[in-house]
Design brief:
It is a single chain. Helices cover 28% and strands 25% of the residues. By secondary structure, the protein is of the alpha/beta class. The protein folds into 2 domains: 177 residues, 3-Layer(aba) Sandwich (Rossmann fold); 118 residues, TPP-binding domain (Rossmann fold). The strands form 3 sheets. It has a 9-stranded mixed beta sheet with strand order 9-8-7-10-6-1-4-5-11, sandwiched between helices. Helix 3 packs across helix 4 and helix 5 runs parallel beside helix 9. Bound molecules: flavin-adenine dinucleotide (FAD). Flavin-adenine dinucleotide (FAD) binds next to helix 6, helix 7 and helix 9.
């Protein structure tokens, strides 16, 4: 038996979608290695979160009631103690900002090898993991020769687990050493435009260099309003200072998993695709029939965005601004 302990994630009172991806990734690994899947739910409204992650394929859920928000030192201690208590062979953590904050400490504390940013598992006697490199141009397979490991999995690579589960939920009494808590979250301050988390949006209208100049933004904003979407972009838009950094999709921006992603004047460079390939339905509007975004798109409109976008705004009952 090679048991897996997967760690869930929440922020500001809400379970993050990546938690349900951790259930799928954890089940995948547990099936490959022949073991049980345990989930850790740490801090915040643990009972509600445990209920939400109780999906098919979960064998047991362990809650650690300590504090409200994510805390690096609490997570590191709680995960380490729980993994030890369960004798779990594999500790799975999200390759998120928070996950990367405590995963190395967990690996160090448990003397485990750490493999980060994993996108797939397979097993041939021993565990093999796939990682992507050079912005997704190269895939590497790594044999994990030890039979225990700490692993972080890339968000949006596994589907969100579905189906109600019936795993037993139990409280784990972690012995948190408060003298080891070196920092705490005292509050949140929004940066400009920070009210929007594009990684949680269900419908994104995303713009690229094809919009040519900042003066054309109101046209796109009218489409965003008419469709009740959220605005995101490729990197050049952020580099030009037309939108804040938290709107950037891609390798050095955010990974998004909306139901619908409309890419307007975006070529589909690998660094951009790394952030949006997990979208359910991709629509591309681009004049260049050879643009790589068309390799990925479910629907393509090979036309000038300055003709297509006003037509879409009208179709959705919005008003086309003069730009
Ligand atoms: C280390 C590194 C990290 C990076 N990280 C990111 C990242 O996180 N996110 C990211 O996006 N990029 C990232 N990049 C940059 C990336 O390589 C591309 O340069 C960038 O994604 C291109 O953005 P774009 O598609 O908007 O622009 P372009 O590649 O210039 O594409 C513009 C597209 O608009 C189309 N177009 C032009 N006019 C019209 C029109 N009137 N109507 C319709 N279509 C039109 C063109 O045909 C073209 O396909 C990174 C690069 C590096 C080296």
């Amino acid at each position: 038996m090679s048991d897996v302990l997967a760690v869930t994630e929440h922020r500001r009172g809400e379970l993050r979608d990546v938690s349900l991806e951790m259930v799928s990734a954890g089940r995948d690994l547990a099936d490959e290695m022949g073991g049980d899947l345990h989930l850790a739910v740490i801090s915040g409204d643990v009972d509600a979160y445990a209920d939400q992650v109780n999906r098919e394929g979960v064998d047991a859920i362990h809650t650690v009631e300590y504090g409200e928000e994510f805390n690096h030192d609490v997570y590191a201690q709680a995960v380490e103690q729980l993994a030890d208590d369960l004798d779990a062979e594999y500790v799975l953590m999200p390759n998120s900002v928070n996950g990367l904050d405590y995963a190395p400490a967990v690996a160090e504390g448990l003397s485990l090898p750490l493999v980060t940013d994993v996108v797939d598992f397979s097993a041939d006697g021993e565990l093999e993991v796939t990682r992507e490199q050079y912005g997704g141009k190269v895939e590497t397979t790594i044999e994990v020769s030890e039979d225990r490991a700490a692993i972080t999995t890339r968000p949006a690579e596994w589907p969100q687990a579905e189906g109600q589960g019936d795993a037993e939920v139990s409280a784990f009494d972690a012995d948190i050493d408060e003298s080891q808590i070196q920092s705490t979250v005292t509050g949140f301050e929004e940066v400009a435009g920070g009210d929007v988390d594009i990684s949680e949006a269900e419908f994104l209208v995303s713009i690229g260099r094809g919009i040519e100049e900042e003066e054309n933004l109101p046209l796109i904003e009218a489409l965003v309003e008419a469709t009740d979407a959220t605005l995101s972009s490729s990197r050049p838009i952020v580099d030009n200072g037309w939108l804040p950094a938290n709107r950037q999709v891609g390798q050095s921006g955010k990974v998004v998993t909306p139901d619908v992603y409309i890419a307007i004047g975006i070529s589909g460079a690998v660094q951009h695709v790394a952030g949006m390939k997990g979208a359910d339905t991709i629509v591309a509007i681009n004049t260049d029939p050879n643009a790589p975004i068309y390799d990925l798109a479910d629907y393509g409109i090979e036309d000038d965005l300055f003709d297509v976008v006003p037509a879409l705004i009208e179709e959705f009952g919005g008003e086309v601004p003069d730009v």
